Amino acid sequence: GRLEAVTQQMGYHPQYLDSFLKTQHYLMHMDGPLPFDCRHYIAIMAAARHQCRYLVNLHVLQFLRAGGDPQWLRGLDFIPPKLRNLNEINKILAHRPWLITKEHIEKLLKISEWSWSLAELVHAVVLLAHCHALASFVFGCGCEQDDGLGGRGSLKPLSPGNQCFCEATAGNGCTQELLGVNRKRSLDSCMELDSLRERMQRIHMETEGREEMRLLQQDREEGEGQGAEVGVQDGTEHCPDLSAGLSPLTDTDGEVTGATNLACYMQDPDFGYQDFARRDEDQTQVFRVQDYSWEDHGFSLVNRLYSDIGHLLDEKFRMVDGLQSSAMAKRQGCEPSVFKRGIWNYIHCMFGIRYDDYDYAEVNQLLERMLKVYIKTVTCYPEKTNSEMFDRFWKQFKHSEKVHVNLLILEARMQAELLYALQAITQYMI
Predict the structure, then answer these.
(1) Quick check: is 359 in a domain?
(2) pLDDT in tens, 133-176
(3) What's the total number of domains in the chain?
(4) DSSP state letters, 195-240
(5) Catalysed reaction per UniProt (predicted)?
(6) Which of 52, 141, 164, 166 is catalytic?
(7) Which of 77, 130, 237, 329 is the 20 to 30 Å CA partner of 48?
């Protein structure tokens, strides 16, 4: 249930990894407005938008460990309306964040039995953006487990068989005490997994037994219609059928496997990214950073409504900007800061975010066509990343540089989603 494949790749940049893990831990496991089971379910909803089984499976297990209701795993039709109402902004933020408006915010916050508080909504928005962006990194670095634990295998682990990447951060604030804690957590996770397997196998067997009894009872009824009616009453009303939610996690031997169908976790699956079309006659479509920026607006708002998360996010943005990329930039014939800014602004441009002080002609000069195709795919529809595109992009870069590009994609995409969502919240508050 941990992010081994992800932390292996981020381990090439230990200081960033440390910052990322602090943020991930704070979002999922520290005090905050949202209950722990809801946090993991929101992560499932976010990862499902990009068909990211790696993250869905991870958070399904953590959702159950947090005491989550197994019924919820049957899909969005089986969760509380309050959570289900989050589906619309999840969909928009994942694919076309420029469409989010203060009306979407108002609809969630309006006074009713299922209304969100501002603090809860900010926590949810940060979770959604975090998981959407992390899905891009998972696909971009080949962590998506297409075939067992090996995944695509295009990127090799930092060190074979190493399961705890605290070692990667040695000398960067990771103590032996923390290393021991993580090893203990790994053992605890194994014990929890065994317990979870037994629990799921038991429920699976009970469900099969109930189904047999239901079918026998149906056969005894005189009419097919009457039998069906009794079957529904006996099988659903008095004893909920959990097999629909748990079967994706168990095989015939009761072993924990992966979710087979992610469609139950999303609505409107055909809704995806479309090129942001800037119309000169309608300047309001363009998001101008000069009018609303992370530094001047977003940071203070998110930190006020969800204590300390702004500092953690800001540190992560600064950390990725400070990573060294001299060799990568030198091959492109420019300074490291110029190369990184070109990638960052290109990603933001795809989401309609513009910087008035930047010459966008530089993007075409700095970024080769295959690199641009790769960046756009991983940013906008990461689930379409294929091995051919992956291999062609990797040829000119060192391994750590490949990871660096994907970290830039992760953070630029996350900031873009946050800017749109936080601006909509600000407009609602005003």
Answers:
(1) yes
(2) 999 999 998 887 543 333 444 444 333 233 333 333 333 333 34
(3) 1
(4) HHHHHHHHHHHHHHHHHHHHHHHHHHSSSHHHHHHHHHIIIIISS-
(5) a hydroperoxide + L-cysteinyl-[protein] = S-hydroxy-L-cysteinyl-[protein] + an alcohol
(6) 52
(7) 237
